[in-house]
Amino acid sequence: MRRIGLLFSAGNAVIMNYVHQVPGWPAFTWDAAILEQTLASVRCRQGRLLGQMTAQGFQLQAESGLKNLAAEIVQSSAIEGEHLDQEQVRSSIARHLGMEAGGLAPVSRYVDGLVEMMLDATRQCDKPLTEARLFGWHTALFPMGRSGMRDITVGAWRTGPMHVVSGRLGREKIHFEAPTADRVSREMASFLQWFNSSQALDPVLKAAMAHLWFVTVHPFDDGNGRMARAISEMALSRADQTTERFYSMSSQIEAERKRYYELLESTQKGTLDITRWMLWFVECLDRTIARAEETLHSVLRKAQIWERANQGMVNDRQRKVMNRLLDDFKGELNTSKYSKIAKCSTDTALRDIRELLERGVLEKNRAGGRSTSYRLAGGRA
C-alpha cells in the first residue's frame, strides 16, 4: 500500500535539485498581492473566533481548549499514519493541566511525550525556540530511543542521509532528499535565529514558512512532520496571542492530506518562490477556523439548551432524550419515539414533553394533530 510521508534513511544518492540546493536558499519569496485577500479573511475569522471564546465562561474555554489540543495531537499523528487513542490523549492533557481526569484512560509514555511537546509549544509560545528545546521535544517523542522496530538518534540532530519515500521495499519512490547531515547544524542555527527574531512579517505567514523550512531541513531521524506542525502551532499561538487552542489545524490538514503532501513535494522540488505553499497554508487555516466556528455555535447552542432545561428538575428520561436530540438525532421527535427512547408510556412521554415545552427547551413543529412533532428550541421547523 502506497504511503506518502513514510520517513527513513537510505544510502543511495539522488541526482536532483531540491529547494535547499537552489542558490540563495533559504531566502524564500512570495507574491504578497496573491495572499493579501485570503490573509485578511483568515485574520478576521481569527479575531471573531477568539472574541467569541473570550466572552464564554472559564469552564467552556477550558473544555474547548482541551478538545482542540487533543484533536491537534491525534490528527497530527494520523497524518503520519499513526492512530492514537483519543481518550489517552485527553487524559494526559487533563493531568498535565491539573484538570479533572477521573475515569479517563491510563496513558502510555509515548502519548505523554506528544502531549508534553504540544503543551510546551503552545503554553510556552512566548519563549525562544532553541536547540535544547527541540532536543527535549524529540526525546519526549521517542522515550525508548526507537521508531517502530528501528533504533534512532534521539535528542540530537541526525547523522545520516534522509529521504522521504513511499512504496514497497525494493520499489520505493523517492519524494524528497533532505540536506546532508553535515549541513543540519548550520541550517538549524539559521532557522532558529530567524524564528526567534522580530520581523515585519504577519505571524500566520511566519507559521507557514516555519513549517516548510523545518520539514525541508528534516533535522531529526524521525518525528519531523509532527515537530513542524508543533512549531506552526507555536507561531499560531503567538498570532492568536493566547495559549489556549480553539481550533486544530492538523485536523484540517489530515482532511486535505493528499494535497498537503503534493504541495510539500512540489515546493521542495521547486524554486525559492513559495507562493503556492503559502496560499494553501493560509486557505487551509481559513477552513480550519470556519470549522471551529461551526463547532463553537453547536457547543453554545447545547449550553443554552441545558441552561433552559436546568431551570427546573430534569428527570432521567428527559436527560436521556435531550442527549439523543443533541447528538445529531435523525428525523422528528414525537411521543411515540420519546417513549421508546425513554422506555416509558406515551402518557409519561407526553407529560415530560409538556414540561420541556414550558421551559422553552422544545418547540412544536408546524404540523399538528397526529403529525405533531417537536424539535429543540432554535432549530428549523
What does this structure look like?
The chain is mainly α. Strand 2 and strand 3 form a beta hairpin. Strands 1-4-5 form a three-stranded antiparallel sheet, with no helix packed on it. The protein folds into two domains: 295 residues, Fic-like fold, CATH 1.10.3290; 64 residues, Orthogonal Bundle (Arc Repressor Mutant, subunit A), CATH 1.10.10. The N terminus is likely disordered.
The CATH architecture classification of the largest domain is: Orthogonal Bundle
Order of strands in the sheet with the most strands? 1-4-5
Cα radius of gyration in angstroms: 25 Å
Q: Which bin fits the share of residues in helices?
A: 55-70%
Instruction: Name the shape in a single word.
Output: elongated
What are the salient characteristics of this protein?
mainly alpha; 6% strand; disordered N terminus; 57% helix; two-stranded antiparallel sheet; 381 residues; 2 domains
Write the layout of secondary structure elements.
Layout: E1 6-8, H1 32-54, H2 58-79, H3 86-96, H4 109-123, H5 131-141, E2 146-147, E3 150-151, E4 163-166, E5 173-177, H6 181-196, H7 203-217, H8 224-240, H9 249-255, H10 257-268, H11 275-309, H12 316-326, H13 335-342, H14 346-358, E6 362-364, E7 374-376
Antiparallel strand pairs: 1-4, 2-3, 4-5, 6-7
Brief write-up:
The chain is mainly alpha-helical and 381 residues long. It has helices spanning 32-54, 58-79, 86-96, 109-123, 131-141, 181-196, 203-217, 224-240, 249-255, 257-268, 275-309, 316-326, 335-342, 346-358; strands at residues 6-8, 146-147, 150-151, 163-166, 173-177, 362-364, 374-376.
